[in-house]
Amino acid sequence: MAAEQDSGLPVPGGPRHVAIIMDGNGRWAEQRRLPRVAGHRAGVDAVRRVVRAAPEIGIDTLTLYAFSSENWRRPADEVSDLMSLLRHHLVSELDELNSNGARIHLIGDWRRLRPEIVERLEHAVAVTRANSRLQLAVALNYGARDELVRAARHLAAEARAGRLDPAAIDEALLDGALDTAALPPVDLIIRTSGEQRMSNFLLWQAAYAELLFVPTLWPDFDAARLREAAQAFARRERRYGGR
Ligand code: IPE
Ligand code: IPE
Ligand code: MG
Predict the structure, then answer these.
(1) Whose CA is nearest to atom 2 of ligand 2?
(2) pLDDT digits over 102-156, tens only?
(3) Ligand 1 pocket: which of 22, 27, 192, 197 to mutate (most atoms within 8 A of CB)
């Protein structure tokens, strides 16, 4: 097993699309008697590690839950620290993302973030557009219920404009109206930090995803743990209701 874990080869039967609820930054900092923002900074390092490792493991799409539509409920100074980190790293990480062949996608109501951040996000999407080694979807101001509400509103507007027959709405059409329309199906959802809940992440897309809850706090997550998760996925039997 150790040799298998150390290899830089793709995991046979591993997941193609992995989505991660990156949780535990605050607890990581508290354990060290550091301010929570130190945990968020260390969390950025973990993001860099998984983005580098994912393609080597055979993962071609990685979706990261970075800021939920409910995270606005946090104290203003923490929200502001998170936005500053985002604003800074959107610029400082671009070269690294390009050299990793990562193409950025955004899911969530990210256009409602501060205009300066929206501009940087649009820039990051544009300059990574030609990359194809890793599809990297970042969930920002994302909530699965909000995503479904926005999709429903869009379809209703299309119907009212006479461009869509309500009877034509099926699972594929609704799926295509979600923020994840351009991404392959989610195979594996990992949540770090030991919490075992979805916290409004990819509720529709999770219908037949495999779920993995690991005790590791997000800032401690690394390539070896991502590989272990891919190996755990490869051992699962997916049935989709069949037998
Ligand atoms: C996850 O870590 C990062 C974000 C939600 C932005 P937390 O900040 O939720 O860390 P804990 O759960 O308090 O440890
Ligand atoms: C989920 O983590 C959101 C992100 C990781 C961005 P939270 O820490 O916000 O979730 P709860 O509050 O524990 O459910
Ligand atoms: Mg948390």
Answers:
(1) 23
(2) 999 999 999 999 999 999 999 999 999 999 999 999 999 999 999 999 999 999 9
(3) 27
Q: Which of 220, 186, 215, 214 is nearest to 201 (CA)?
A: 186
Give the alpha-carbon dihedral of 46, 48, 54, 55, to 10 degrees. Answer: -170
Q: Which fold has domain 17-143+184-234?
A: Undecaprenyl pyrophosphate synthetase (3.40.1180)
Indicate the top mutation candidate among 20, 21, 109, 201 to test ligand 2's pocket, ranked by most ligand atoms within 8 A of CB: 21
Q: What is the pLDDT of residues 65-91, one digit of tens each?
A: 999 999 999 999 999 999 999 999 999
List active site positions: 23, 71
Alpha helices by DSSP H, the chain: 2-6, 25-31, 36-57, 76-92, 94-99, 115-127, 144-160, 171-176, 223-234
The DSSP call for residue 10 is P
Q: Residues near ligand 1 with C-beta < 6 Å?
A: 22-27, 67, 71, 82, 193, 218
Ligand whose nearest atom lies closest to the CA of 195 = 2
> How does DSSP classify residue 65?
E
Q: How far apart are CA 236 and CA 134, in angstroms?
A: 24
Q: Which ligand gives the minimal distance to the CA of 25?
A: 1
Contact assessment for residue 137 and residue 202, using Cβ atoms and an 8 Å cutoff? no
21 CA from centroid of ligand 1 (Å): 9
The model's pTM: 0.97
Instruction: Provide the residue ranges of all domains of the chain, joining segments of one domain with +.
Output: 17-143+184-234
